[in-house]
Amino acid sequence: MQIKISDHFTFAKLLRFTAPTAAMMLFTSIYAIVDGLFVANFVGNTEFAGLNFIYPMLQMISSLGMMLGSGGSALVAKTLGEAQPERANQLFSLIIRATIVLGVVASAIGAWLVPDVARGLGATGQLLEASTLYGRIFLVGLTTMMLQAVFQSFFTAGGRPHTGLWFVIGTGITNMALDWLLIVPLDMGLAGAAWATVIASLAGGLLPLIWFLRPNPSMLQLGKAVRDWRALGKACTNGSSEMMANIAMAVVGMLYNYQLLKYTGADGVAAYGIIMYAGFGFAAILLGFAFGVSPLIAYNHGARRTDELRSLFTKSVTLVTIFDLVMTITIFLVVRPVAGLFAAGNQNLLDLTVQGGRIYALAFLLIGFNILGGILFTALNNGLLSAVIAFCRTLVFECLCVLVLPGFFGVPGIWASAVVAEVLAFLVTLSIVLGARRHYGYL
């Protein structure tokens, strides 16, 4: 039986509704991990380090898609809750057109800046060459990657998260198959991994575009766009917290790479990449759950269903608390075997990854609540509070920690930066959530 965003949600129904979105995010992170796995095992450690060295910049540019997707889907879901389906479709169409234009412009600018950014962060020689090669090829597919991120949010807002999941699975399988084909038999090296991602993104971005252009069983269909620049600005502002979180993560990633290159050399950069791959997978589940809940919160906020809004928030907090605990324990247990898949006989890399991973795992005790807090206010169309949480969590706290703690504790201080930052962010998020509870009625 099809679940509707207007339904009352029990724990079981909430998990069923959000599971496809969480799976979408998880699957996306898995095929990104496979890229790294093939490069580490079939190309070389320098190329693997180069991929991870430039990836934060690529993540920063790609976050434009998450901004438009999260902010736009919250606005559209709220409009649906206000019983304005025609305007909701017009806004949806506007956001997709804006994504295409922004993607083309950002791709051209990013490709021009890649070598300068890598050089500015300390890359030289082969590391600089590898970073530039991967970055410039990756950016060829930026527009379709941004469309993929936007459509993931709108499949959920349109009440069809399972359909979105099938598109992501198809994209992921295509990417992984191309990784093998281009890297192993065709011996294209790091370029093969980049082109595999670009080609697969065509399926992830263009096929959903065709699906929404045709009559479909969702609540949304692409058609004539309304020329409402204020609404587009509202969507961008509202989704700016998710973009800010990704930009901040990218900046933090650059700082981690800078510090690890300084303290440990290329092995430290590779170790951080491995830890991030594992972290992406677990964080993707939490992020996917939060994105899955977001249109439900937005819809009920628009429909002024305070009781259902309160029920959704309470259930969501309960579930992310359980997820946080399970993930912390799991990361601690699996970090050694996961590191072994990438280390390829490099004992120093293995030791660095295990040490860093077990410290980093403690950040997951609080990360779910902090993610949910930020997306809660995006769903409520309060981009300012959402941005404050995202800004403090990463751009302020984690940047400060990764710059300061290594001076006192060396390499362990680098790994502990995420833990300290999540604790500080939890205090900020909790105070904002409690402070705004009466205004929105979710508690």
Task: Note down, in words, how this protein is organized.
This protein has 443 residues and is mainly α. The chain has one domain (11-440). Helices cover 85% and strands 0% of the residues. It is built from 16 helices and no strands.
Give me the count of strands: 0
Number of domains: 1
> Between the first and last Cα atoms, what is the distance in angstroms?
30 Å
Largest sheet: none
- Provide mean pLDDT, rounded: 85
Helix content: over 70%
What class would the helix/strand composition place it in?
mainly alpha
Number of helices: 16
Radius of gyration: 21 Å
Strand content: under 5%
The helix-strand sequence is HHHHHHHHHHHHHHHH
The low-confidence runs, each spanning 5 or more residues with pLDDT under 50, are none
Shape: globular
List the helices and strands and how they pair.
Elements: H1 11-42, H2 45-81, H3 85-120, H4 125-138, H5 142-157, H6 161-183, H7 189-213, H8 229-238, H9 240-263, H10 266-302, H11 306-343, H12 347-360, H13 367-379, H14 383-409, H15 411-435, H16 437-440
Helix pairs in contact: 1-2, 1-6, 1-7, 1-10, 1-11, 2-3, 2-4, 2-5, 2-8, 2-9, 2-10, 3-4, 3-5, 4-7, 5-6, 5-7, 6-7, 9-10, 9-14, 10-11, 10-12, 10-13, 11-12, 11-13, 12-15, 13-14, 13-15, 14-15
Q: What would you say about this model in short?
A:
By secondary structure, this protein is an all-alpha fold. It has helices spanning 11-42, 45-81, 85-120, 125-138, 142-157, 161-183, 189-213, 229-238, 240-263, 266-302, 306-343, 347-360, 367-379, 383-409, 411-435, 437-440. The protein has one domain (11-440).
